Amino acid sequence: MMFQEHTQERSIDERDREEKFTNDNTCPECQGHITRNSDSGEATCESCGLVFENDPIDHGPEWRAFTSDERDKKSRVGAPTTQLMHDKGLSTTIGWQDKDAYGQAISGRKRAQLQRLRTWDERLRTKDAHERNLKQALGEISRMASALGLPESVRETAGVLYRRAVEKNLLPGRSIEGMSTASLYAAARQHGMPRPLTEFADVSRVEKIRIQRAYQYLSRELGLEIKPEDPRQYLPQFASSLDVSDEAQRRSRELLEVATDNAVHSGKSPAGLAAAALYAATHLTNEQLTQETVSEVAHVSRITIRNRYQELLEVYAQHD
Q: How far apart are CA 41 and CA 55, in angstroms?
């Protein structure tokens, strides 16, 4: 019996020693280099031919997939964590379908029981005011971002900014809707995808002035380093909505570059300058867009476009 225990302890020590040298790719017998054959799954020493592993463990999935859709369908892991859910998507959710594991409809008694379980599950997932606040705000961010067509990266950043505001106790005295809209506005500017504040006010439940105040407060308290808006960043989205030619886009960019070099843009709305540059460029290329059409797309008044495009053309003429 003692001999068997000694043999077992010795074999464990030998396996540990062998595993250590194998990880270092060094043979424990002759200090030679260990090579691995992916076809046979063996690890052997180049010098003495000692075989170390003939049945390695494959830690990958047991299935194969040739397309991304097939990979998503076969994968059994859950969705990645996200900042857009108050629990980061780590909790479980009871499905809304009243069916069993075989896809069969369940009885009325089971449906009522399942509905009660969903109610309790929802209550337990948001068990305090802090989580209810986050849930409402992150839902607002997702709703507004979908309405504005903002990408997932901007939404995630907005969720992070709102969480930082909650951690620093910046919300008392301010509405959840205002702070969530301000977080989304700041995230869009951080990602270089600015939108006019009016667009955010259109999809938000609060007025523009409250969003502006919330953004200033959020930016100051969190120390956000956001660069001033560049009017040229507005050109692609306005040009796409107005369906103008590439030549008009190029001319509008030239107009804004000349205006920036002569400091004409200082103190003026970037969105208004971009809209005026596009309007002026379409006249230079004989596309003849009306001020009303540009105003509706850019959310800028016709008076602003009328004043700015004349200034841009004057500076551009002096530059030529």
A: 7
Please state, in angstroms and rounded to a whole number, the distance separating the CA atoms of residues 136 and 22: 53
- For the entire predicted model, the pTM comes to 0.66
* Tokens linked to 112: 């009522």
Helix H, strand E, coil C: the string for the chain is CHHHHHHHHHHHHHHHHHHHHHHCCECCCCCCEEEEECCCCEEEECCCCCEEECCCCCCCCCCCCCCHHHHHHHCCCCCCCCCCCCCCCCCCCCCCCCECCCCCECCHHHHHHHHHHHHHHHHHHCCCHHHHHHHHHHHHHHHHHHHHCCCHHHHHHHHHHHHHHHHCCCCCCCCHHHHHHHHHHHHHHHCCCCCCHHHHHHHCCCCHHHHHHHHHHHHHHHCCCCCCCCHHHHHHHHHHHHCCCHHHHHHHHHHHHHHHHCCCCCCCCHHHHHHHHHHHHHHHCCCCCCHHHHHHHHCCCHHHHHHHHHHHHHHHHHHC
pLDDT in tens, 107-129: 888 899 989 998 888 788 777 88
pLDDT for res 221: 93
304: CB partners within 8 A, 6+ apart: 269, 272, 275, 276
Phi-psi region of 151 (alpha: psi -120 to 50; beta: other; left: phi over 0): beta
Q: Which two tokens stand for residue 169?
A: 């106790």
Q: Return the amino acid letter for 298.
A: A
- Rounded Cα distance, 252 and 249, in Å: 5
Taking only the tens place, the pLDDT of each residue in 206-225 is 999 999 999 999 999 999 88
